[in-house]
């Protein structure tokens, strides 16, 4: 006697023949799609039969509308079953079988809930967020959603204060399945140097100032350091800025710079200096005695890079170096 299997079609479309073996599933599915003329229902059958997907908490999901009610619509969350998208977030003219991009999290009663609003940071992200309240279980951060993001006391180092902003990492607590944040960042950053190389352009997130400079997260994966004597602009915690790999040290630590290194940067700045000279009538009151801050304010580079650029222009006999500045040589 052949073994029979339950077909999920029976739940959605009653009175349909449902006895078939797994090896015959494809042909029967094909017959059903042709007979019904509804490929979307076939997609629904395959997802329910094989559990091909599960809506992910803490990130954006593209989910299908399966039911409309007075207070919103329900979305197909796969293994999470149906997830409510409250009415105020439902797009205009939304209907069953439409796909909507939503963010999934838990509401105050720990039920899966969807929103079309996007938080300032999602699970896996590092971001600077402001502490808006403190209670007996932790600190709560404004992350752009109605329900604030909690940082448990055990995840704070140092203790956080209301009204201040902190760089945190967003994660999902494995025990409660709730989205939370932590200021203990080291566990999420790689200790190995990776594939970085000198001169590589990277994205930096400034975290905190130390005795030697600023600690920064590189591309969301590694720590790096910007040295104070090489920084000529104000930086603050939480600031995102473009930077460059200066050196990967033997101890695997990474030195950073806000400027390109070597003659690659010099080539860029020479054109800027020449353009500035033409704009200012052929003379700039900047010398090798000028402060690093003055040079950075004018050209956005370190004094060392500026002097290299001036030397390169001088060798091309385009400028004259005078006591009180540099002068463009007319040809």
Q: How many domains?
A: 5
Q: In CATH terms, what is the fold-level topology of the largest domain?
A: OB fold (Dihydrolipoamide Acetyltransferase, E2P)
User: What overall form do the CA principal axes indicate?
Assistant: elongated
Distance between the amino and carboxyl termini: 100 Å
What is the helical fraction, as a range of percent?
Answer: 10-25%
* Strand residue percentage: 25-35%
Uncertain spans, ≥5 residues at pLDDT below 50?
1-51
Largest sheet: 5 strands, antiparallel
Strand order of the largest sheet: 3-2-1-4-5
CATH class identity of the largest domain: Mainly Beta
Derived from helix and strand composition plus strand pairing, the structural class reads alpha+beta
Number of helices: 6
CATH superfamily of the largest domain: Nucleic acid-binding proteins
Summarize model confidence as the mean pLDDT. 84
